[in-house]
Amino acid sequence: VHQSKLDFFCKLGYGKQDICKVLENLGQEALEDDVLKELIRMGSKPQALECQAQSSSLKLVARGSYSSTPGSKWLGEDDSDSSDHFRPIVIDGSNVAMSHGNKEVFSCWGIQLAVNWFRQRGHTYIKVIVPLWRKEAPRQDSPITDQHILEELEKQSILVYTPSRKVKGKRVVRYDDRYIVKVAYEKDGVIVSNDHYWNLQNENPEWKWFIEQRLLMYSFVSNRFMPPDDPLGRHGPTLSNFLSKKPVLPEPKWQPCPYGKKCTYGSKCKFYHPERPHQAQLSVADELRAKINVPLSLRKEKAQRNNSP
Questions:
Q1: What is the pLDDT of residues 203-218, one digit of tens each?
Q2: CATH architecture assigned to 89-243
Q3: So what family is this one in (predicted)?
Q4: Which of 14, 107, 215, 292 gives the lowest tally of CB atoms within 10 Å of its CB?
């Protein structure tokens, strides 16, 4: 039991010393949720461990060259994620599978469809979190289809199981939603789920803001994974900007003036006038002053030309 808990929290990026201290204080039979809360309370974070690993392995590097410091890998993180332009993706496996199975069957094919959709967009950090008891053989009250997909995703370091065990014949299941939100929050990523996580929003105000701003809902239409084009509403960012670390702002669209050439606002007009130069848009008063400053002889010559047959 000690070794399984140690391996699990090491995968999350926590140090062995901190894990051993917590297990000594809480006991070897402590629940994983309690151990995770104690690690958070102690201030042990995977990002802090990465910074320590980087600072301990500083090297002199020639200007213009690239060096990669071996930091602690968190949930199978690879070095290519540092240069990735897309946000990390954390998928609520149970929510996606049950949604694809019409809330009656745990359809693993739905998870594969979601993973394929993000892969085609170019995302390299994709994690699917599923309870460990889904590894067991399907029963009548909890049917599962295409269970071999879970094994394939686990081999690819995409799927991560949350721990569970049996105590006196009863299954003790950990709260996998807390793992989903915590991983997405620490990685500054996106949560893919149709769950609103109301209880976790009330538990932590920082998580409340994160869930409101980074929750990507979806639908399945004829075995097609379809997230909305406007994840945060009509006035929010587009889907591509929502999933990108550096969103691209759209170019401003100038609305043409409804009065056209009859407009008398001059340079104060907020609308676009294609007939006017962009550098100098003179008002009517400025145009009259410019005409007055024209020499009298030039105005007489112009009048004579207009009057000549």
A1: 888 888 898 999 999 9
A2: 3-Layer(aba) Sandwich (3.40)
A3: Belongs to the ZC3H12 family.
A4: 292
